[in-house]
User: Which sequence fits this backbone?
């Protein structure tokens, strides 16, 4: 390893592109540059065929239909399309949306935006383990509620929400359910029929696919769900999302999903083991809080807070050895402590002194041992 290059522990922020994914994408960057909407020549046909096949693979992996997949630039755009598109389409039915305090900024942002235009948004509390507070959810639903948006797996603490239970409750009351599944895809089994969700956001770059491609799953059975497009133009993606389809990225996305499905069982067992090994190495340091539920969580995610230490100094020291996150990558430009950890009941100081270890496909036992040594040395040094 290069001196000075830290060990990568930020797989929840993004992942490297898998070699098989890169190989699958390359021809569509070069030899087959066709626009999949060009119906007049070979290049267009080849490109359209690749998109069609990728869409079918992706749909099958989610237990969905190909026409239920709307390609977007990622989960942020898919969340924006879901929340704003439903709000706009159902405005005459109601103006109330329910979501959770621990959501990603890509859900909270569109919610705040909608509030400026007269929608009411309820931000549900979570239990100390990170689960949606069930009674609060039940009480929040009103006849004017048009959408409930609850993420499947949390990006900071990994906690997996009991979504089946939530969709059942909401559907009994005729309310649509959206989930941000950006962290879940490829890491836990994902079946839109079993989950019962109406809309689901996914992205490729959290599962060893390329950055800049994602999708919104939109249930298309009866009664048909209305969704207002948020990007107008050439009418691609059934008019839900205009813009030239990026064939190489779409091919890479499908390849990444296929590969992740093949590796899911073995990787999830291996990463769970590494995660627990890391925890067992950190716990003896004392004053370490493990954030979020311990088992209903992503295999490769461990989030800890260190009590009684200056968070800024801790993170600065750790980061020269380990590429970790404190809070989520998207909010770490602002020096604000994590809204997720505070929702769990952590103090501001505990939230600042928090470290998210993201373990992934290239993480080894030796990496985990290194992380334990770095943490041990840094914490004891700062305590002195
Ligand atoms: C990464 C992430 C996003 C954003 O996805 P992009 O594809 O980068 O826009 C949204 N939600 C969650 C939970 C994420 O982890």
Assistant:
């Amino acid at each position: 390893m290069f001196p000075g290059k830290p060990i990568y522990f930020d797989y929840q922020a993004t992942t490297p592109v898998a070699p098989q994914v890169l190989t699958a994408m390359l021809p569509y960057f070069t030899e087959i540059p066709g626009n999949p909407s060009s119906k007049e020549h070979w290049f267009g046909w080849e490109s359209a065929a690749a998109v069609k096949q990728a869409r079918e693979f992706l749909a099958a992996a989610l237990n969905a239909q190909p026409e239920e997949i709307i390609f977007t630039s990622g989960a942020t755009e898919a969340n924006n399309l879901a929340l704003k598109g439903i709000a706009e389409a159902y405005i005459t039915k109601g103006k109330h949306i329910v979501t959770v305090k621990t959501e990603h900024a890509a859900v909270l942002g569109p919610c705040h935006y909608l509030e400026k235009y007269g929608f009411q948004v309820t931000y549900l509390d979570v239990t100390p383990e990170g689960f949606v507070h069930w009674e609060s959810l039940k009480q929040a639903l009103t006849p004017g509620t048009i959408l409930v948006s609850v993420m499947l797996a949390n990006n900071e603490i990994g906690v997996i929400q009991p979504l089946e239970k939530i969709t059942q409750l909401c559907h009994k009351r005729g309310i649509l359910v959206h989930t941000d599944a950006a962290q879940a895809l490829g890491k836990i089994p994902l079946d839109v029929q079993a989950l019962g969700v109406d809309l689901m956001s996914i992205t490729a770059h959290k599962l060893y696919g390329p950055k800049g491609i994602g999708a919104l799953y939109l249930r298309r059975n009866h009664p048909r769900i209305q969704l207002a497009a948020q990007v107008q133009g050439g009418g691609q993606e059934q008019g839900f999302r205009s813009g030239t389809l990026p064939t190489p990225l779409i091919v890479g996305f499908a390849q990444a999903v296929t590969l992740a499905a093949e590796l899911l069982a073995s990787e999830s067992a291996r990463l769970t083991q590494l995660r627990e090994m890391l925890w067992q190495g950190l716990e003896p340091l004392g004053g370490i809080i493990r954030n979020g539920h311990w088992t209903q969580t992503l295999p490769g995610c461990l989030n800890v807070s260190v009590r009684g230490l200056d968070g800024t100094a801790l993170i600065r020291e750790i980061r020269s050895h380990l590429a970790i996150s404190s809070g989520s990558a998207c909010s770490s430009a602002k020096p604000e402590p994590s809204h997720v950890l505070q929702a769990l009941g952590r103090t501001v100081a505990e939230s600042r002194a928090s470290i998210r270890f993201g373990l992934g496909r290239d993480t080894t036992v030796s990496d985990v041992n290194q992380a334990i040594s770095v943490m041990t040395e840094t914490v004891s040094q700062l305590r002195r």
Notes: The longest strand covers residues 301-306. The chain has a mean pLDDT of 95. The radius of gyration is 21 Å. Residues 74-76, 104, 106, 151, 155, 180, 182-183, 203, 205-206, 214 surround pyridoxal-5'-phosphate (CB under 6 Å).
